[in-house]
Structures are given as structure tokens and as C-alpha cells.
Design a protein that fits this description.
Blueprint lengths: L1 H7 L7 E5 L5 H21 L4 E4 L4 H4 L9 H22 L3 E3 L16 H11 L7 E6 H4 L5 H8 L4 E6 L23 H10 L6 E3 L11 H15 L1
Parallel strand pairs: 1-2, 2-3, 3-4, 4-5, 5-6
Length: about 240
């Protein structure tokens, strides 16, 4: 029904979010694998151009019930191994996978892949031929702080750039998940990042992605009007 509704409305999807949460102990590994294959199938059915993947943190947070671990290096190896396995499933379906590095504040519980360079290295290890089947989702909220960001974007290349998300970082931030800012309300210089991304040949959407307890309380029409105005003036 969802796929039909999207088609009937004449909408284009920018991606399907999300799969991932890969680290798991042996008892939860198969469930993780099945969840991600199902996400590939759903994204394909919806006509999404890619499946966005949030890698996951330590196993007990990525897959609740998994044995407790503090070994973040092992978690990162699990992300790489599971991503390679999922690529074998997604490639025949013609569905690109977009790994999204997240801000280090999420390293323990949401994503242990925390810089663009780190995510790119992982992609290069798994898909050295740059087939277009595996790439990256860049979110300014997660990456703006990195002193090597612009240099890393220069390494990415068009075939790896699958999604680009914009919002702003508020000071102070009052919630680690749901206090993103409207573009222009925070401290991120969005335009130089967008310029670097588009210089690599990216021609997709600069997608507004704002998780915000505050903005969720604002009437939808005002939210949309503000998004449009800020996108034109700040992005």
C-alpha cells in the first residue's frame, strides 16, 4: 500500500531509512541478517534509490539482549563484515547501500563508524571497484565538526555519493537525538559542505532531515514554509 501511495502521489524518494544496526552476538546474528535483507526488499518495493544504513554501536545496544561488550574495534569489524554480506544480497536486486557515518556521541549505541574517512575506507575495502552498489550518506549534523571533512569529500567520488542530508547544530544542544536545528539556527556552515559534495558530481537532493521535539510541535505548514525559505537562503 505504501509503494502504491508513493506512486499515486507522484513522489520521488530520496532513500529508505534505515537498515543496519549490525553488531550482534551469535544468538542475535541471524535476526540482524534477516532484518537487513527485509529492509533491502522494502526499499526495492518502494522504488527508493538507496537503503541508508546506520552501522550500529556495541552489540548490546545495536541488538538488545546481546552479550555486553566494550570492544568497539570488534564492533567496527562486525559492521564491515555484515555490510559485505548485505551487499551480496542487495547487488542482484539493483539496490545501492548507503552507509551513514554518525557523530561520535553515538559511537556506543547507534553507530561506531564516525567519520567520513572511516566510512569511505570501509567502502573501499568491501567494494574496491567502486561499482555504484555501495556508497555513503553524508549528513552535515554528523560530520560538520571533522577538520578533515572537505578533504575526505574530495576522496569520495561521484559513484560513492548516494545521499546528502542537511539541518543545523544548535548550541546548546539539549537532546542527543531530537534537538536538531533548522538550517541557519545553528553553527554549521552548510554551503561550503554542499559545494564540496556537488563538486564531486552529486546532483541529488539536499535533503532536510530534522529530528526536533520543538519543530514537531509547530504546525506542519509553518515547518514546510520555513524549510523552503531556509533551504533557499542557507543551503
Amino acid at each position: 500500500r505504501a509503494a502504491r501511495a508513493v506512486r499515486d502521489a507522484g513522489l520521488d524518494l530520496s532513500g529508505y531509512c534505515r537498515g543496519g544496526m549490525f553488531p550482534a552476538d551469535a544468538a542475535h546474528h541471524q535476526t540482524m541478517r534477516e532484518d537487513n535483507r527485509r529492509a533491502v526488499d522494502e526499499a526495492k518495493a518502494l522504488g527508493a534509490p538507496c537503503l541508508v544504513l546506520v552501522g550500529g554501536g556495541l552489540p548490546q545496544y545495536s541488538r538488545p539482549g546481546s552479550a555486553v561488550s566494550k570492544d568497539i574495534a570488534a564492533a567496527r569489524r562486525q559492521v564491515e563484515d555484515a555490510l559485505a554480506d548485505l551487499l551480496d544480497y542487495a547487488r542482484p536486486a539493483g539496490l545501492p547501500l548507503a552507509l551513514e557515518p554518525l557523530h561520535p556521541m553515538y559511537a556506543a549505541d547507534r553507530c561506531c563508524v564516525n567519520t567520513l574517512g572511516q566510512a569511505l575506507d570501509m567502502c573501499e575495502q568491501i567494494d574496491p571497484g567502486r561499482s555504484g552498489a555501495l556508497g555513503l550518506a553524508l549528513d552535515v549534523y554528523h560530520l560538520w565538526w571533522d577538520p578533515d571533512l572537505i578533504e575526505a569529500i574530495g576522496r569520495v567520488g561521484r559513484e560513492r555519493l548516494l545521499a546528502f542530508h542537511v539541518c543545523d547544530w544548535l548550541v546548546p544542544t539539549t537532546d542527543l537525538l531530537n534537538d536538531r536545528g533548522m538550517m541557519g539556527d545553528g553553527v554549521i556552515e552548510i554551503r561550503p559542505i554542499r559545494a564540496a559534495v556537488e563538486a564531486q558530481g552529486f546532483a541529488g537532493y539536499a535533503e532536510v532531515e530534522i529530528f526536533s521535539n520543538r519543530w514537531w510541535e509547530v504546525p506542519l505548514e509553518h515547518v514546510l514554509d520555513t524549510c523552503i525559505e531556509r533551504h533557499r537562503t542557507m543551503v
